[in-house]
């Protein structure tokens, strides 16, 4: 396992993040706002840690690992888009937190986050995640 392996850097796997988010979703669906708010707080710590590891450690290594100047440039553009998506996801997660505090969180907002997050994972899958898997990171 590489010293930059996400498993070493970040204990918050995609599966762990998804299970935390499911707890938020189900708690809102069942009207358990206090549980949803507490679970969302835990989710945000994990989500921020996960994205921070990607942004601060893995993205720069991924870009620099390009074999040619053209590949480095293409990866830099890909990472720029992934960082933009991270910002959008963080903003939407923040909106969920505000609505939870106000007692106004709803399934539609959570579903929107879940769909945006799935699209982001798809965007990472072909380039960045494939590289992580192939390089043992």
From TrEMBL:
Q: Which Pfam families match?
A: Hemerythrin
In terms of superkingdom, the source organism counts as Bacteria
Tell me the ranges covered by the Hemerythrin-like domain, including all copies: 14-131
Name of the protein: Hemerythrin-like domain-containing protein
């Amino acid at each position: 396992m590489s010293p930059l392996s996400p498993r070493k850097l970040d204990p918050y796997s995609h599966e762990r993040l998804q299970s935390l988010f499911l707890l938020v979703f189900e708690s809102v669906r069942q009207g358990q706002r206090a549980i949803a708010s507490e679970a969302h707080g835990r989710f945000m710590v994990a989500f921020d840690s996960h994205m921070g590891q990607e942004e601060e450690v893995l993205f720069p290594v991924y870009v620099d690992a390009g074999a040619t100047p053209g590949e480095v440039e293409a990866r830099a553009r890909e990472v720029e888009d992934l960082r933009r998506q991270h910002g959008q996801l963080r903003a939407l997660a923040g909106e969920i937190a505000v609505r939870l505090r106000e007692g106004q969180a709803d399934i539609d907002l959570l579903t929107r986050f879940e769909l945006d997050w799935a699209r982001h994972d798809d965007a990472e899958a072909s380039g960045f995640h494939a590289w992580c898997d192939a390089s043992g990171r």
